[in-house]
Write a structure and sequence with these properties.
Chain lengths: ~150, ~500
């Protein structure tokens, strides 16, 4: 964990410097008339100071720590990454294909590819959930869901 | 006060508000039962639906989800050794052991009754404390609000899980995120990078859903959780006399402790339940038995988490300042509906305040009725494999984010925060201070800039106002308090070295 804290504290420090630099560009103003960058500069400065303290703390010698893999379950990690990619494609694709069909594809992919469910469950759950959610949100809750080339 | 309470009941007994109260507590229990979807994510999912209904109905429903989840969370803790949501973690320790000994029924029963009593006592506290506190808060100006919000963020960091230093870093980052968007004085975009989705600032709901909902799913998929449902028959839900005798004092202690801890920023159900467990173990004649299935280890924390949920409403309804992420969502709802929050809420929107108070009485009664007879149904729901549940959780998150502005950019923002939330959890950073700071940031910036305008740039304004100075002094004390154990240990070590 100390190694992770050392790395993350440096990342936070870089972010803090960027925030402060961006705030100066926005204009800090003065104490009588604080500018738009004033508060974000303060936030960035505090973040930078705290990240330096974290780096210093993590750099101190302490008891030996057990090494922990970042992804102790590599297969699970791969599935998680695929899930995020599928989710992103689903959201972008919704604007073109429409909510209903994109949801069918999305749920089908997740239930079969990651959930490893039987095809009967995949098909039944996918169709049921897509129809029910479309009806609830489009008609009952009046949410204007994206329409595709077929009009729904 | 009684006429006000009767007025509140007249508001909540309208048929539409009754339905929303029932829906809220039912969904809250369901959310509490299902691991992987906490009350924060559930409330944010339904946030957009509440924009189409009157604010009093919306807040009644969302509030019902919050305290309903406290009831539901105990079911999975006791039966699965898997907390339905964070404030039920402690219930796993003794509750699951009781289930293994064939005492799941009394554990579930005392949990439900304790939650009801804790919830009722906290509502009484809310009624008694909120109006005078709101009157006192009328004296607050910009310096006082700024100092109060500073104290809130310091307290959230103090009470956060894990390292206080990391929690404060999250708060600082959240303050920065809160500055993103159009500047309210000069009118220029700040840190938007030309993205339209950031012009109105970082959306609270996509941020919350991403940080808590999406990241939770990501972690669960990565860890490939397998759940085993406890198979024994659940019977004798009504505790017997001995169980009541053993539980009554923990319930009373949990009620008062939970309520007062719930008022603190960063408090609420989670801190209340943990503290109650620690107190019960401390005062018990048999502390060594904790962890083996003692009913006090269930009664105290389960009462405290519901009492804490009630207490957490006080800063929001009296000062307009949310004390945790859940209250931040309710604040978002009130602001979106054009309700003026702050000390004048009780006077100008008495239907909202007293309606919520009365709905909490009714909601707690509904939950007691729902939770005991329907245990069997909740257990059946638990049998739905997570591999089938998680796509639906993701779907609801997507629809929830999309429905805010009918814009898929909000959903992409949610996914971004999901990845951020996942990384934060992997590196042991608590996202709760970030969310609170995101909400408080714009208010703090406004208060700071207005204070400096009024004082002509003199920072001493925060010290010359007595209330502000007191609040800042408490903040500084909380900041330096963690240093003392280190300092004392160091002094002791030095002394020992000198002696040898």
């Amino acid at each position: 964990m100390k190694k992770n804290d050392r790395r993350t504290s440096l990342l936070w420090l870089v972010l803090a410097i960027l925030i402060c630099w961006g705030s100066v560009r926005l204009s800090l103003g003065d104490l009588r008339h604080p500018g738009p960058g004033f508060f974000s500069f303060l936030a960035g400065a505090i973040l930078g100071l705290l990240s330096i303290i974290l780096f210093w703390q993590s750099d101190k010698k302490g008891p030996e720590e057990k090494r922990r893999a970042f992804w102790p379950n590599p297969q699970g990690a791969r599935q998680m990454i695929w899930m995020v990619i599928a989710l992103t494609i689903y959201v972008i694709g919704m604007n073109y294909v429409g909510f209903f069909f994109s949801t069918l594809l999305f749920l089908g992919c997740l239930l079969s590819g990651i959930g490893h469910q039987k095809w009967s469950i995949v098909i039944s759950v996918t169709i049921l959930v897509a129809i029910v959610s479309y009806l609830i949100f489009q008609y009952w809750l009046d949410v204007q869901l994206p329409r595709g080339f077929l009009g729904f | 006060m009684l006429p006000d309470l009767f007025y509140g009941f007249s508001v909540v007994l309208a048929w539409n508000n009754l339905i929303y109260c029932f829906l809220g507590v039912l969904m809250g229990t369901l959310v509490g039962v299902l691991p992987g979807l906490g009350p924060v994510a559930a409330m944010s999912l339904l946030f957009s639906a509440t924009l189409h209904i009157p604010p009093v109905s919306g807040i009644i429903m969302l509030a019902g989800i919050y305290y309903g989840a406290q009831y539901g969370g105990s079911t999975t803790s006791i039966l699965l050794n898997l907390p339905g949501e964070a404030s039920s973690v402690v219930t796993c320790i003794d509750g699951y052991q009781m289930a293994r000994q064939g005492r799941a029924g009394p554990a579930l029963g005392i949990s439900a009754f304790g939650s009801f009593i804790g919830g009722t006592i906290s509502i009484l506290g809310l009624m008694l404390i909120a109006p005078p506190l709101a009157n006192f808060a009328l004296r607050f100006g910009f310096p006082e609000y700024f100092s109060l919000m500073c104290l809130g963020l310091v307290m959230v960091s103090f009470l956060a899980r894990g390292s206080m230093l990391k929690a404060m870093m999250m708060a600082a980052f959240g303050l920065f995120l809160g500055t993103i968007g159009m500047d309210f004085i000069v009118g220029i975009p700040k840190f938007t990078f030309g993205l339209n989705v950031l012009m109105d600032g970082v959306g609270l709901i996509p941020a919350i859903m991403g940080l808590f909902g999406i990241s939770e799913v990501m972690l669960n998929i990565e860890e490939s959780l397998h759940q085993e449902v406890f198979k024994a028959k659940i019977s004798h839900l009504l505790p017997n006399l001995k169980e009541w005798k053993d539980s009554i004092m923990p319930i009373l202690r949990g009620s008062f402790l939970g309520f007062f801890l719930g008022i603190l920023p960063g408090g609420g159900a989670l801190v209340s339940s943990f503290t109650s467990y620690a107190v019960e173990k401390k005062v018990s004649k048999y502390p060594e038995k904790f962890g083996t299935g003692v009913i006090e280890g269930v009664a105290g924390p389960e009462t405290a988490n519901n009492a804490g949920a009630g207490g957490a409403f006080i800063p929001l309804l009296t000062l307009g300042i949310p004390s945790n992420a859940v209250m931040a969502i309710l604040l978002g709802l009130l602001l979106t509906q054009g309700v003026q929050v702050g000390p004048l809420l009780i006077k100008k929107h008495s239907d909202i305040f007293w309606g919520v108070v009365a709905s909490m009485y009714l909601g707690n009664a509904m939950l007691l009725v729902l939770n005991l007879p329907l245990i069997g149904i909740w257990v059946k729901i638990l049998k739905v494999p997570y591999q089938i549940l998680f796509p639906m959780i993701l779907l609801f998150c997507v629809i929830g984010s999309y429905s805010l502005n009918y814009n898929t950019d909000d959903v992409l923002l949610m996914i971004f925060f999901g990845v951020v939330g996942y990384l934060l959890r992997k590196f042991d950073y608590d996202a709760a201070p970030l969310i609170l700071a995101l909400v408080l940031g714009p208010m703090m910036e406004n208060s700071l800039r207005q204070s400096l305008l009024v004082s002509h740039g003199n920072f001493l304004i925060f010290l010359t106002h007595p209330i502000s100075a007191t609040l800042l002094a408490i903040s500084v004390l909380l900041l330096i308090l963690p240093l003392f154990p280190w300092f004392l240990t160091r002094k002791w070590k030095d002394l020992k070295e000198k002696e040898s």
